[in-house]
Amino acid sequence: MAMASFDTNRTTAGLSAGKTSFFANIIASFTAWNDARVTRNSLSKLTARELDDIGLSYGDIEKIATRTR
């Protein structure tokens, strides 16, 4: 006689992992945007001479602010 077997230890890792990854990506994107915003604002407050002292110009600010880590 054959016996039926049921798996009672199901996991929903696929669904949970997808949601976690989705929200982690949103948080990472927001963090990167905020870091770029803070960097841009900080560098924009410097004078041309101060920027020159650190080897930058006003044209470099956007490139530096959005550079990935």
The total strand number stands at 0
Structural class of the secondary structure composition?
mainly alpha
Q: Helical proportion?
A: 55-70%
Please state roughly what percent of the residues sit in beta strands, choosing from under 5%, 5-15%, 15-25%, 25-35%, 35-45% or over 45%: under 5%
Note the run of SSEs as H and E: HHH
Runs in which pLDDT lies below 50 for 5 or more consecutive residues are none
Inertia-based shape: rod-shaped
Mean pLDDT comes to 85
Radius of gyration (CA) equals: 25 Å
Largest sheet: none
Q: Given the structure, what is the number of helices?
A: 3
Briefly say what this structure is:
This protein has about 70 residues and is mainly α.
Kindly describe this structure.
With 69 residues, the protein is an all-alpha fold. It has a domain at 19-66. Helix content is 62%, strand content 0%. The chain contains 3 helices and no strands. It has helices spanning 13-44, 48-53, 61-65. The longest helix is centred in the middle third of the chain and has 32 residues, at 13-44. The protein starts with 12 loop residues before the first helix and ends with a helix. The model has no long low-confidence stretch (mean pLDDT 85).
